[in-house]
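Hi W.,

Here's what went into the run:
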Amino acid sequence: MHGGPMTDIETFRTETRSWLEAHCPPSMRTPMAESEAVWGGRNAHFPSPDSKFWLEAMASKGWTAPMWPKAYGGGGLDGEQNRVLQEELARIKARPALMSFGIWMFGPVILEFGTEEQKQAYLPDMVHGRSWWCQGYSEPGAGSDLAGLQTKAISDGDHYIVEGQKIWTSYAHYADMMLCLVRTDPRVPKHEGISVLLFDMKTPGIDVRPIKLISGLSPFCETFLNGVRVPKTQMLGPKNKGWDVAKRILQYERTNISASGFGGGAGLDLVEAAKESFGLDNGTLANKDLRSRITKQRMYERAFHLTMRRAQEEAKAGSEVSHYASVLKIAAAKLNQDKTELLVETLGMDGLGWAGDAYRPEALKATRDWLRAKGNSIEGGTSEVNLNIVAKRVLGLHDHQ
Amino acid sequence: MTLSLTEDQALLKDVADGFFADKAPVNAMRAMRDSQSTFEPALWAEIGAMGFAGALIDEAYGGSGMGMRAMGLALEAQARTLGTSPLFQTGLIGAIAFDFFATPDQKAQYLHLIGSGQLRLALAFDEGAHHAPSQIATRAVKTASGWQIEGKKRFVQGGNHADLLLVCARIDEGSAQDLALFLVDPKAKGVAVTPRESVDSRDWADISFTVAEVMDAACLGGGVLDPAKLDLMLDYCRLGICCEMLGLISACFDMTHEYLKTRTQFGQLIGSFQALQHRAAAMLVEIELTKSCVVGAFEALETGKDVGQAVSLAKARTGETLQLVSNETIQLHGGIGMTDAHDSGLYIKRARVLEAQFGSSAFHRDRWAKLEGY
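Here's what came out:
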């Protein structure tokens, strides 16, 4: 440290720290259960008055989207300032003020591909948590082969009319807006006839049905689109160039999925659960086989987090890091599946309860998390599709021509 | 503190890669093996002249003072082409041992010789087939003018060519804190060096000490070693081995990657088969995760925070990944990978030795779990 006047970044840290001290309520500095997350939207649900206050405070600074331009409600921070902000948030263990697919995935592409009107129309609402966005990507016939999508948009004056069906739309039953991939030219090769439309989920002709998963939860929906009229001004990027936007969003999605390591937090700690189940023998876990496998899993997890950090540092230094998105997505799926599988095994029959008071709530969560995790290597591009991407784009191994 | 290479380090990496590719290509190692040679004086002199041997030695003692990350890059570059020199034994272990424990007189006497490559050292530490710091039984008993060493060391790397041995022995039996290091002339009375022929064709020896007498001044630092400091010295050694393993990993992977892009079967490049694409991509995922663990260990050494965990993580993960990649190298090459004429065999033989040295993956998983409290 220098003895001279504080540098800009030190000043920023001091100011940030005191602002957070003044504005982050004590109840927002405790571990957060999944049900306490704030997703915003027109019908935003706030589990407590503090959570509403905390979102409004953060949004007023633009710090729900710290690096977006101030002109669109963002925080206007540079990378170093954002790092300081994140460190200061972590220091006081602040809860995320807002969970938002809009901020994680869609805002960045609207910033990159959108018109000025689109930026003004959508970005400030994302920052303030006034809109919940969902992703109209997969279709019954277009999963891994996403570019084979059939939902079509037919030109009708200054509107498109959208016809088709989407599936696996995360939280479509709560969403206010959809970013939707549509086919605007069926006569050209499949990647070259796709466009992106942005529309309100209240538009007539949209029918949403939640899908019940093996975990008993319904985070995904089927979305039926029948004669949905969308103004042409709500196309993102040029007509028939939507695949470029789609791929960019997938990168954000994979990075975002990976960043959370598929969540799974706030549950039972694997090592603590194992100690409880099997006890210690001379200071080491009595079940040696499990001890070894738990260690491998935890080492993998540690390696994953170090790689996340390395990717961020290299990106900051200006290196090309796009290949990390698929690498990290593959690794994140494996680590979460291994972790949830090991936790259920560690709990034994206690880890296989479905409902009721006979099981601890944390154990029931372990069961549901384990089942939910089976989707981790499917959603956001299957692990196999991501291996294809690594093989082709990173290693330059191409299919037979 | 950082996980990515600085500009200076990236530059140094290029220099080191170029140097070893030029001066110590795989063919040179193969020729050494075929002529049963385990030491090339000319290469070692150049490694000294490049400043690699003295990377961990202060300029005040004639070293280059480039630091541990530089040493790591040099070891990685050397290992990539299976370059064979005493860089690890002397430049890393020797320099760290003197830096950590030696008296000012001992430093003044030896460090400039180590940094310039004029003195080759070997650490005589383990006594069994597995790395086991707690199992050392060799004893040093105080005499009127020095010490008398009694015991048998096995698997001493560089033991046949060393000018000076660093022998770890107990000096106060019964207490946990009784290990010391002694400087012993391998030609001295009571010291017997027996060469071993190992799978990696390198310099390995068993060394026995029977009433081997040394002077007081031969005890590094003059007495018992701080156990935490000794453990830290071992962690430097382990991290050095990790860097060598990274070198092997990248060489094996590059060789295999190249083969997938050039070998034709069924009228097409074998790299166009999805089964093989996925095996290659899966390796890359493991390699990226592993690289992060190694730079994470460097970072831990620099900050001094949770060094044991960070190094054990790196050693365990690097060992696992090297095992995967060296095995896949043979499988993806097919029959040619099983022939002695192909380099894959040279790499897998060296790989398993490095995996075992200074603690196998199993050793480091166990250590990591203990440090994490289970």
